[in-house]
Amino acid sequence: MTAVDAQTVVVGAGAIGSATAYWLAERGQKDVLVVEQYDLGHGNGASQDHSRAIRHSYHDNAYGRLTQAAFDNWDRLVAESGQQVLLRTGGVEIGLKGTEGEEMIARYRKVLDDQGHAYERWDNARLAERYPQWRIDEPADVTYSRDMGLVDIGKAGQTHRALAAALGVTFRPRTRAVRVESLADAVRVHTADGGSVVARHVVVAAGAWSDDILAEVGQTWRTTISQEQVAYFVPRVLRDFTPEAFPVWGWYGPTLFYGFPVYGEVAVKIARDMSGRFVTHETRSMEPVAEETELLEAFLRERLPDAAGFELYSKTCIYDMPPDRNFVIDAMPGHPRVVVGVGAGHAAKFAGLFGEILSQLVVEGRSQHPIEAFAADRPALTDPSFRPVFGL
Ligand SMILES: Cc1cc2nc3c(=O)[nH]c(=O)nc-3n(C[C@H](O)[C@H](O)[C@H](O)COP(=O)(O)OP(=O)(O)OC[C@H]3O[C@@H](n4cnc5c(N)ncnc54)[C@H](O)[C@@H]3O)c2cc1C
Q: Which terminus of the chain, N or C, has less C-beta within 10 A?
């Protein structure tokens, strides 16, 4: 048997890699090494911000079947660490009647029904009564969910890393993995400094950089990277946008806008999903695009005028999207010791659960959670003629 330097190497200390490291140690692995190309908690990836939306409503039951376990996983982390990484602020999802938004709301509500999650169906009057901050004259269809809220994704990553380190996990920042090589009964992870580490398993949680690592170990798909942007605005009426007074929200339509009450900054946050700005690591910019912030501000002015004070700042971020924008949670075909987790630009709410499942795939070779839909050899990933779809 090949001698190893570590039981498992995790490539990437973002939300998913950090959770995986914690859960591997929680499962008794004493020798876990996490390599991260940047500093821990850096802002170049997808996991460095104050808030990410979490909800039970989804466009497909493949995700709906996992949301309760995701909430339970976060509740367990809060109990374990004393860190408040999950806030159930309540949430509203709004679609204007007679528009694409109404169809989307209905599709998301079907998953709530199928999975037996409670919600309320509101009209304009009920919305105005509970959340008078909204300006909507057109007839709207609204779903209110008590459990909807936010995950503090930056704090969640820090918390998983703190608990993992306390359980003996080693984090090696500023160490870039450049190649993963499958051996007979182990894997070798080559690093940019010319070194390498041999382990029984490797978990690749490299987000938008996954293609750089997976190409040699059975990857058949290409990851599309889109540059996304969020904006923080200081509300004109601050107390009306506290988490007690204002929910996490989604506005469904041709453009999917979403936002958060005042959290992390003395400002509300707004963004839209899937800007369509496709980039590479070379063309990706950390400089916010003014037109994008203007678009978000215009939405606030029209729909939440009291939130539309001055811009505090905007920041960019990146989605890592397989061709069907579904997760990849699996061992690589033909490389059973190479386990991969890809969040497809909507996995923060599931990051803790991702870690739990990926650790199960490493330690037990299987998971009790329903992840068949996220197989690495599904047609959308193996069929070169598959036409990419990135809507949620
Ligand atoms: C603007 C925006 C809004 C979002 N909103 C939501 C939301 O509301 N709800 C939700 O659920 N999700 C949301 N998401 C998605 C969510 O944030 C991501 O799915 C999640 O953070 C992905 O985590 P990750 O660990 O896979 O990726 P990352 O955080 O990008 O981590 C990958 C890590 O791997 C490291 N790495 C890569 N290659 C190497 C290498 N070769 N060697 C060493 N290290 C390497 C990188 O440096 C990075 O730290 C949003 C994403 C964005 C961008």
A: N
